[in-house]
Design brief:
With 338 residues, this protein is α+β, with helices and mostly antiparallel strands. It has two domains: 2-124, Endonuclease, Chain A (3-Layer(aba) Sandwich), CATH 3.40.960.10; 149-334, 3-methyladenine DNA Glycosylase, Chain A, CATH 3.10.300. The chain has eight helices and 15 strands. It has helices at residues 17-25, 29-38, 80-95, 105-110, 112-124, 149-152, 156-163, 263-269; strands at 2-3, 49-54, 57-63, 68-73, 99-104, 167-171, 176-188, 215-220, 224-230, 238-247, 256-261, 287-290, 302-304, 321-323, 331-334. Strands 6, 7, 8, 9, 10, 11, 12, 13, 14 and 15 form a ten-stranded mixed sheet that branches. Strands 1, 2, 3, 4 and 5 form a five-stranded mixed sheet that branches. Mean pLDDT is 81; it is low at 1-9, 126-142, 251-256 and 328-338.
C-alpha cells in the first residue's frame, strides 16, 4: 500500500492518479500472479480493481461488492516502523467499513492455491449468497432459474438420480455454457470409505459439512479440478461428483451428442479452478443446475460401482454411480479438451 497525503474519503485523491497508473504498469511478480486470478470476475463473479485509490492511500486490490481490500506484503513490512504505519492505515480503512486481507509474497508465490482458497472462504463469510450484488439492473440470462436448496437437502442417492437430465449452467465473463448432466457419483457420509469426509473434517472438506447446494471443487493429480455439489443436512458430509456432460449450446447438438466423459475432462471443459470451491449453486450466478422439464425414465438409468475407489474396500462396490447411455440413434463425439 502506498501513502500519499491526507484525504479522509473512500474516493481516491486525484493527485494519486499518475502514481496509480505507474504502479499498474509495473506490478510486482506476486501482484501479477494474484491479479491473473482476480481479474475478469473469476472469484464468485466479483469485480476487483488493482492499485485502487482510497482516500490518501493506494491499495493493491479492492473488491467494491464486498468492501474488501487485499494487500500483498513484501519483506519490508516486517520492519517495526512499517508495521506501525500499516496499523494506522488499517485503522483508517476499517473506519470506512473496509475489511483488510493480507498475504505475504512467499504465500502467493509458493502457495497460490492456498491463498485463493482462503480468499474465497473469507469473501463468502457472513453471506448466504456468494454473489448477492452481481446481477445488474435490467440484465437477463438464460436458464437463470436454479434448483432450490431444498432439492439438494434430500438423500444423496435420490438427488443423484434426479440430477440426470438436468442442465448444468456455467457462466464465464465471455459466455454461458449449457450442458446436460449424464453421469454422476454419490459420496455419502463419514462411514463411506470412498468419501473424503471419511478421514475427518479438514480444511479441504469443510464445505461438505456446510449447507446443501454449494460446490465442492478439489484438485487431483495436480492438474484436474473436479466438480461436486453438496447434499443432505448440515454437518452430514455428502456430495455428488459430476462425471459426464453433454453439450447443449451448439446447433450441431441437435443431431450429434457432444459428450464430455470423465470428471477431469468435465472440470477442464468448464474451466474450473479452486476459486470455484464453495459457490452457492442455488443463486444462479457462476455455476448452477436448471430443470428444463426433462423426465428421465428409471429404466434408462444405469447404476454402476464408482470409479477409481478400489482403496475403499467393500464401499468400492456400492452401485452409487448413475449414468445415462448415449442415444443409439445419435453419433457420439468426445469433446476434446485443451
Amino acid at each position: 500500500m502506498v501513502e500519499f497525503s491526507s484525504m479522509p474519503a473512500k474516493k481516491g485523491n486525484p493527485k494519486l492518479l499518475p502514481l496509480r497508473r505507474r504502479l499498474r504498469n509495473n506490478l510486482t511478480r506476486t501482484e501479477q500472479l494474484l491479479w491473473a486470478k482476480l481479474r475478469q470476475n473469476q472469484i464468485y463473479g466479483l469485480k476487483f480493481r488493482r492499485q485502487h485509490g482510497i482516500g490518501s492511500y493506494i491499495v493493491d486490490f479492492y473488491c467494491p461488492e464486498r468492501n474488501v481490500v487485499i494487500e500483498v506484503d513484501g519483506d519490508v513490512h516486517a520492519a517495526e516502523r512499517v508495521q506501525t504505519k500499516d496499523r494506522l492505515r488499517e485503522e483508517h480503512l476499517k473506519s470506512l467499513g473496509l475489511e483488510i486481507l493480507r498475504y505475504t509474497n512467499d504465500e502467493v508465490i509458493n502457495n497460490l492455491d492456498g491463498v485463493l482458497e482462503d480468499l474465497a472462504r473469507r469473501l463468502l463469510k457472513d453471506s448466504t449468497s456468494p454473489t448477492p450484488l452481481l446481477i445488474k439492473e435490467g440484465e437477463t440470462q438464460d436458464h437463470s432459474n436454479p434448483l432450490p436448496r431444498e432439492f439438494y437437502e434430500r438423500p444423496t442417492l435420490k438427488v443423484a438420480k434426479e440430477l440426470l437430465g438436468k442442465v448444468l449452467v456455467r457462466k464465464t465473463p465471455k459466455t454461458t455454457i449449457l450442458t446436460k448432466i449424464v453421469d454422476v457419483e454419490a459420496y455419502i457420509g463419514p462411514k463411506d470409505k470412498a468419501c473424503h469426509a471419511s478421514k475427518g473434517r479438514t480444511k479441504r472438506t469443510e464445505v461438505m459439512f456446510g449447507p446443501a447446494g454449494f460446490t465442492y471443487v478439489y484438485l487431483i493429480y495436480g492438474m484436474y479440478h473436479l466438480l461436486n455439489i453438496v447434499t443432505e443436512r448440515e454437518e452430514f458430509p455428502a456430495a455428488i461428483l459430476i462425471r459426464g456432460l453433454e453439450l447443449l449450446d451448439q446447433p450441431e447438438a441437435q443431431t450429434h451428442q457432444i459428450r464430455i466423459d470423465g470428471p477431469g475432462r468435465v472440470g477442464r471443459f468448464l474451466e474450473l479452478d479452486r476459486t470455484h470451491n464453495g459457490l452457492d449453486a442455488t443463486q444462479g450466478t457462476t455455476i448452477w443446475v436448471h430443470d428444463q422439464g426433462l423426465t428421465v425414465p428409471r429404466n434408462q438409468i444405469q447404476a454402476l460401482p464408482r470409479v477409481g475407489v478400489d482403496y475403499a474396500g467393500e464401499w468400492a462396490q456400492k452401485p452409487w454411480r448413475f449414468c445415462l447411455p448415449s442415444p443409439p440413434s445419435s453419433k457420439v463425439r468426445r469433446k476434446k479438451t485443451k
